[in-house]
Amino acid sequence: MFGRLKQISFCRCTIAALILLSGLFTQSSFAQFPHITGDLGTTPKPLVDSIGLVDYKIYYGTLVATDKDDPEIKEAGTSVVLVGTNGLVFDDYIEYKRDSLIWNAAKWKLPATNTLNLALAYGHPLIEFSSAVIFEKNIHIFQPNLGSAVRARYEEEIPKLDWQITSEEKEIGGYKSQKATVSYRGREWTAWFTEELPIPYGPYVFGGLPGLILELRDQKGEYAFTFSGMEKSTPEDTPLMLSHSKQLRVLPRDQVRVMVKNYMSNPVAAMGNRVKMKDGSSIPKKSFPYNPIELE
User: Fold this and answer.
1) Rounded to an integer, what distance in angstroms lies between the CA atom of residue 18 and that of residue 29?
2) Rounded to 5 degrees, what angle do the CA atoms 127, 128, 130 make?
């Protein structure tokens, strides 16, 4: 599947499912995040696809209109681009912190119960997918982070973006930046990049410019990323990786998109009959807003 990528044998899907349950009951006693009790032993090593080591981390303040029917309401968070020699990973910062916590807890053989509860306390990520770019293989990987209901990803060639670089300039955070525009899968994007940081990357798949992207917005204002900092990696940092599971399947892009859309329209149905209310009755249907970063 990944050529020479190494598969390493706590799964993100467990945490995602628990957070999902807490989010379904905002008007009931289920509103708080679940708390795990009992002795679960030591934290097991997570199953991941390793892409190598991280060289540096780029952070972006992130705003997303999660509900396309109410685009004026934005949710705020932080996303991160992890760059290494072999590739890069784009992820929500909460998921990155959670993965790092679990990785290090397994490394030091810490109690799994404490690890789970700390991971749950990080809250709900804004960006509910991870993506990776593998340079040598020219592969882009898109993987939803929606728990056990959607254990799938799609793989494709790294998109070739037809950037239109303009002469318009402005200063962002003390850096001289230049405007560029591109159309990508149903959205029109505007980027501001700086050659003072000669790193040809940005959020998600948006790279290939002669400098780091400092701002990125779609024309509708439903997605916005603003550079907030960058730092070199340390020996304590986790590897560059994507979560994996034994049930994970590589499917065509259209199938994965349908799975995600169906899940967001009725996440309870995706869990089947495994979860009930306290009185044994079925959980009422509740949909989640759906406004994907790719529209086509």
Assistant:
1) 14
2) 85
